[in-house]
């Protein structure tokens, strides 16, 4: 089934909500849009790079939460291949494989977490379109060991045959180009034997104590015959016991490779053109921790193992392991490896031209130069999580390696062999892999401020360039989790984030986000981050940090007072006009509350009936409900509720009207009004007529038009906002494809034009 079906004209359509998820829905009006990324450049963990052995510059990349890409050498940029996926389960790519006999065929093992769904996606046109097979084995594209690989491989002599090594369900085989799969009964029962230690101990993501299983499957093409199944295969398992197995009957039966090293986990396995195998090892599967590791080579012809580790971690001043390994297709003795979790001062890159007998360290003083021009924020980010490295099979000078924030490329790698410096460029044009957590488009100044997971946030004066100054100037956070602007003084912006426990994890800007100053201190028992609001005049700040009840300050954090009537976790917003008014949703029940005294006290927006024996409790949107306030209009509120739809109040929450067409409302945003209209344009990520999509309304929600299409679903759309200066422009956050902005296709203007 294609991931990009066309929307049928007429009264009804089969609409794809995600791979394998179709529903009968009434057709809605639609408007074509032109979609682009707000340019940051990289930003997330690129977990693998795969080059095609028979076509020059046909290169693919996979990411842990942001889908897959293909390199366009003519345009010098990466082309996203999975934007048509409407199911976040499939945006984490566990493994990627090309068919060595067919330059058009490519396969993805798609599954973000082992608690969710998984599928094999297959393409016969280099990823322009996909078919999919839901599979019973679990995947973890964003779990421990996610840079290991490759798990998914195609037989170089028979493109009908594929193997996949799963995390806990053993080895699987397809004989029809990935359309159907069956378990290989002859493989030892080791895939689920050993669970991951607490390297990524975040059980809410399903990381902790999950098996990593079979991390590499490799066809040994030496001595094989064209058009016949390759007889010899290897499979490596993430365990510190027996971990490398070999089959000599095309994968039917398997035996442990004699003499193999134990005590460490293999994570990468490659073969040189002379038949030699190279393996990298770590004590843990990574990526957060790796306390020991090694590099070994194996000569299958003579059954000889040799330790070729460049630097033994035990003899170093710190703990680390080894992540990636690559061999030169044209020079079998040329090998490159990377360290993993060598945090001080950075990870290392080693290169050998004699099969690992001796190594040269590339990253020494004045021997390696980095070009950060395409993404200035990378100047403050040392390459880390170097989980994949490849040498271009058609160009020995080009080497690419991945990091936790993108891809670096070198065009003069052989200079290292004669003691000359090498030069590296951040090669992420078109590859945008961030998880935005907050978006704000103010009426003046920069068109967009953003809070981003792992790399803080950005002020974008030019949407099509990575900001010259990099991330926010001032306090730096791991994540910026919330942003708010003063409705009557839009130069005042506040934000919250995550950082060191001894830092103040909220800041204020008085110049529209150019410079930031940390608040004086945090409320009592604060754990930082959480949500924040600022009054219309910019004088009162209300902060609801994690694990603390909401507090307000009128002196920028020098003193904090608990908000009476609010529980921890309540989401507070400010009235955009009246500085004394704030509104809140109860964290557990979505009850709408109001303050008319600058957040000192909150009470239900709907008062008790005269003579009633108990308070009615006010309107409730249910757990998880979120309030928005219409910019520039006092008391005009919108409440979005998962499963309960969208509600509108024009009287400060006294009464709410449900918009019957909206079944689910995930996020709401406001933009410049349509010509001839007074109400701002509304942008909704939600569900209307059983269709999960992105919508716009020009008439306060009376009618809606779909503005995205099946080719632009991005896994999950959240944090929607419009542009108050450009009608039709919308910004939204994705679950791993960065920030997307769109303009009506008939007017693909840029922010610089307005």
What does this structure look like?
The protein has 754 residues and is an all-beta fold. The chain has two domains: 41-426, YVTN repeat-like/Quinoprotein amine dehydrogenase (Methylamine Dehydrogenase, Chain H); 474-658, YVTN repeat-like/Quinoprotein amine dehydrogenase (Methylamine Dehydrogenase, Chain H), CATH 2.130.10.10. The protein has no helices and 58 strands. The strands form 15 sheets. Strands 28-32-31-30-29 form a five-stranded mixed beta sheet, with no helix packed on it. A four-stranded antiparallel beta sheet has the order 3-58-57-56, with no helix packed on it. Strands 4-5-6-7 form a four-stranded antiparallel beta sheet, with no helix packed on it. A hairpin with a 6-residue loop joins strand 17 (232-237) and strand 18. It starts with 11 loop residues before the first strand and ends in a 10-residue tail after the last strand. The model is unreliable at 1-25, 198-208, 608-616 and 750-754 (pLDDT under 50).
Keywords summarizing the entry:
mainly beta, Methylamine Dehydrogenase, Chain H, 4-stranded antiparallel sheet
What's the pLDDT, averaged over the residues? 91
Overall domain count: 2
- The percentage helix is under 10%
Q: Using the coordinates shown, work out and report the CATH topology of the largest domain.
A: Methylamine Dehydrogenase, Chain H
Q: Categorize the overall geometry.
A: elongated
Tell me the Rg in angstroms.
Answer: 27 Å
- Percentage of residues in strands: 35-45%
Secondary-structure blueprint of this entry?
Layout: E1 12-18, E2 21-26, E3 33-37, E4 46-51, E5 59-63, E6 68-72, E7 77-80, E8 93-99, E9 102-110, E10 119-123, E11 131-134, E12 152-154, E13 162-165, E14 171-174, E15 182-183, E16 214-220, E17 232-237, E18 244-247, E19 255-256, E20 265-271, E21 277-282, E22 293-299, E23 304-307, E24 321-328, E25 331-340, E26 349-352, E27 360-361, E28 368-371, E29 389-391, E30 399-403, E31 406-410, E32 422-426, E33 436-440, E34 448-452, E35 456-460, E36 480-486, E37 489-497, E38 506-509, E39 517-518, E40 531-534, E41 541-544, E42 551-553, E43 561-562, E44 571-574, E45 582-585, E46 592-595, E47 603-604, E48 626-629, E49 637-641, E50 645-649, E51 657-658, E52 662-671, E53 681-688, E54 691-697, E55 705-706, E56 717-722, E57 730-734, E58 739-744
Parallel strand pairs: 28-32
Antiparallel strand pairs: 1-2, 3-58, 4-5, 5-6, 6-7, 8-9, 9-10, 10-11, 12-13, 13-14, 14-15, 16-17, 17-18, 18-19, 20-21, 21-22, 22-23, 24-25, 25-26, 26-27, 29-30, 30-31, 31-32, 33-34, 34-35, 36-37, 37-38, 38-39, 40-41, 41-42, 42-43, 44-45, 45-46, 46-47, 48-49, 49-50, 50-51, 52-53, 53-54, 54-55, ...
């Amino acid at each position: 089934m294609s991931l990009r079906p066309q929307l049928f004209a007429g009264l009804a359509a089969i609409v794809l909500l995600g791979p394998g998820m179709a529903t009968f829905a009434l057709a809605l009006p639609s408007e074509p849009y032109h979609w682009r990324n707000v340019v940051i450049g990289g930003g997330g963990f690129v977990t693998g790079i795969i080059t095609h052995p028979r076509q020059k510059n046909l290169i693919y990349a996979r990411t842990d939460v942001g889908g897959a890409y293909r390199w366009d050498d003519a345009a010098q940029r990466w082309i996203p291949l999975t934007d048509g996926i409407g199911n976040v389960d499939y945006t984490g790519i566990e493994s990627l494989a090309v068919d060595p006999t067919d330059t058009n065929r490519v396969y993805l093992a798609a599954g973000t977490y082992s608690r969710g769904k998984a599928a094999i996606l297959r393409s016969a046109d280099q990823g322009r379109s996909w078919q999919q097979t839901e599979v019973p084995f679990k995947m973890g594209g964003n779990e421990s060991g996610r840079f290991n690989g490759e798990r998914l491989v195609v037989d170089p002599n028979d493109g009908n045959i594929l193997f996949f090594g799963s995390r806990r369900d053993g080895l699987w085989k397809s004989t029809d180009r990935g359309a159907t799969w069956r378990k290989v009964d002859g493989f030892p029962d080791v895939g689920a034997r050993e669970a991951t230690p607490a390297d990524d101990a975040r059980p809410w993501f399903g990381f902790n104590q999950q098996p990593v299983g079979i991390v590499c499957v490799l066809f040994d093409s030496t001595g094989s015959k064209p058009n016949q199944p390759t007889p010899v295969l290897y499979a490596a398992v993430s365990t510190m016991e027996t971990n490398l197995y070999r089959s000599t009957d095309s994968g039917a039966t398997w035996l442990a490779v004699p003499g193999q090293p134990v005590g460490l986990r293999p994570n990468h396995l490659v073969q040189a053109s002379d038949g030699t195998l190279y393996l990298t090892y770590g004590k843990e599967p990574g990526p957060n921790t790796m306390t020991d590791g090694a590099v070994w080579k194996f000569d299958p012809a003579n059954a000889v193992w040799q330790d070729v580790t460049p630097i033994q971690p035990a003899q170093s001043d710190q703990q680390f392991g080894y992540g990636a390994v690559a061999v030169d297709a044209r020079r079998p003795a040329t090998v490159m490896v990377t360290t993993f979790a060598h945090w001080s001062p950075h990870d290392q890159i080693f290169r050998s031209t004699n099969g690992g007998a001796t190594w040269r360290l590339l990253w020494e003083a004045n021997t390696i130069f980095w070009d950060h021009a395409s993404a200035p924020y990378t100047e403050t980010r040392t390459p880390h999580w170097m989980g994949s490295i490849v040498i271009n099979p058609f160009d020995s000078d080009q080497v690419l390696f991945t990091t936790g924030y993108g891809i670096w490329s070198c065009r003069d790698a052989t200079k290292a062999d004669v003691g000359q410096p090498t030069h590296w460029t951040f090669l992420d044009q078109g590859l945008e892999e961030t998880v935005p957590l907050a978006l704000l488009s103010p009426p003046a100044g920069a068109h967009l401020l953003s809070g981003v997971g792992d790399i803080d946030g950005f002020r974008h004066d030019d949407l099509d360039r990575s900001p010259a100054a990099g991330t926010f100037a001032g306090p730096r956070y791991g994540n910026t989790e919330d942003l708010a602007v003063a409705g009557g003084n839009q130069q005042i912006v506040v934000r919250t984030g995550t950082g060191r426990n001894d830092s103040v994890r909220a800041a204020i800007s008085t110049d529209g986000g150019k410079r930031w100053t940390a608040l004086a201190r945090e409320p009592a028992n604060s754990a930082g981050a959480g949500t924040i609001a600022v009054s219309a005049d910019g004088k009162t700040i209300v902060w609801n940090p994690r694990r603390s009840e909401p507090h307000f300050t009128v002196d920028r954090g020098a003193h904090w007072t608990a908000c009476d009537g609010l529980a921890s976790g309540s989401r507070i917003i400010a009235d955009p006009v009246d500085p004394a008014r704030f509104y809140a949703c109860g964290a557990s029940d979505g009850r709408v509350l109001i303050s008319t005294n600058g957040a000192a006290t909150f009470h239900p927006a709907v008062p008790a009936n005269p003579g009633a024996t108990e308070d009615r409790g006010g309107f409730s949107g249910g757990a998880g409900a979120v309030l928005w306030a219409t910019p520039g209009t006092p008391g005009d509120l919108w409440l979005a509720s998962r499963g309960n739809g969208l509600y509108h109040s024009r009287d400060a929450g006294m009464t709410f009207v449900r918009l019957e067409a909206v079944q689910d409302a995930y996020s709401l945003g406001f933009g410049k009004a349509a010509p001839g209209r007074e109400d701002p344009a509304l942008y909704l990520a939600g569900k209307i007529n059983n269709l999960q999509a992105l919508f716009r309304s020009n008439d306060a929600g009376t009618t809606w038009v779909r503005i995205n299409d099946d080719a632009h679903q991005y896994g999950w759309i959240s944090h929607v906002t419009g542009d108050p200066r450009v009608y039709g422009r919308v910004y939204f956050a994705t679950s791993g494809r960065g920030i997307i902005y769109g303009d009506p296709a008939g007017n693909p203007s840029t922010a610089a034009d307005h």
